Amino acid sequence: MDRSNLSNYWLVTSLAAMLSLAACAALPGKEPAVAESTGRAAELLPASYPEAAGPASSAEVDWREFFGDPYLAALIDAAIANNQELNILMQEIAIARNEVDARAGEYLPFVSLGAGAGTEKVGRFTRNGAVEENLPLRDGESFREPLPDFMLGISASWEIDIWNRLRNAKKAAVLRYLATQEGRNFMQTHLVAEIADAYFELLALDNSLLILERMLEIQQQALSVVRLQKAAARATELAVRRFEAEVLKNQSQLFEMRQQIVEVENRLNFLAGRYPQPIERQAADLENYALRSVSLGQPSELLANRPDVRQAELELAAAKLDVSVARARFYPSLDISAALGLQTAASGTLLSAPESVFYNLAGEVMMPLFNKQAIRAAYNNATASQLQALYRYQQIVLNAYVEVANQWAMIRNIGESHSNKSEQVAALTESVAIADRLYRSARAEYTEVLLTQRDALESRMELVELRQQQFSALVNMYQALGGGYAKTVEGES
Fold first, then answer.
1. Among the four 85, 120, 215, 484, which has the fewest Cβ within 10 Å?
2. Each residue of 136-178: pLDDT tens digit?
3. Cβ count near 265 (within 10 Å)
4. Where is 365: in which H helix or E strand?
5. Residue 55: how many other CB atoms lie within 10 Å
């Protein structure tokens, strides 16, 4: 081996050793242990609910079947198609999809076609000028001054994804794209529940309005009786005024209730993405309105049925890939570049081959040696974000279970309260007729009649409110279990 080759050998060997030492020095410390999300969450969840309501979760039931009301179904369909919040989320999904396409192209070669033309005049007493002066050309030819330049060619650059950094970035983008779809599904469950809740509030107001109108008819009849009794000197002016005040008070409440109905209708129209218009709805008595009961299933089903849980799980998986991407930046990168084309100083000879043909091919290995604080900081941030995603996932799973437990307790307790209130309403309704007969026969005071009517009206209103709360609890339970959206995720194959 001659001295020149020996020096080159030692140079290559020294560079390889330096790269190896730098690579070892650049590697980060041991990554924090992050448990497998789905398996660990399933282990932490209780095996069953304290009081199971059925073998299968009601989240598997389509919302049209669950509610069974064509007017409510039409409202929800309009909201899913026109609600502005959902439309905004759809654009976020499109942005995430574009990010996937962008990441997918990064680990493929970048190829570009270019053409150019220019001219250059160099100083004669410069290096380039001296080269032009002394460079032999074909007989009878010399360098033009200024010198034109025409070029047509293809260039390519390619980062070889040795450590899967680019592929992992693309996979993370795919997971976040799927997470945005789950976020949209979660928004839809909220929207469906909000519309259903407002719809039942509207039905409750209709029922309360009807009760109030019927009570006003009874009170106006009682007022007519009191006026006749006053004319016959069997009642005082005080009794007449008290009955009139009670009628006026309830008439005022009647207008307030009508205003509430208008506001709830407009809230439903807003959620449906349309301008105010009358809301078509059931005219049946709320007490006779049938709503499907819920089945809780098993707590582990929340992991598959709740969109927010699935979203958090996907974001956790993406955060784990982000750590791998950040770790790969400590390793060497290999870039390959190439170009092929035609270049000449005379446009007429641009297509002359092989004189005008040029090409190049180069490979470059690069890795960080010094001042790696930015890379290490990015790696530490990715690790911290991964832990954040893990804790967020655990928090969402815990919150999902607590929501189901709270709603189940509410359904049970409101049901008991509704049963007792029904008995109270029946007793007070009967007492109104009794008080009226006693007053007409002068065996009861007018104050007893007024108080009985007032108590009966309040108890009926409270019964309607409890019935509405029952429906609201069922709707919220359906949402808590993960119902209210199509279970097939768009874009998945």
1. 120
2. 766 666 677 787 888 888 999 888 888 888 888 889 989 999 9
3. 18
4. strand 357-366
5. 9
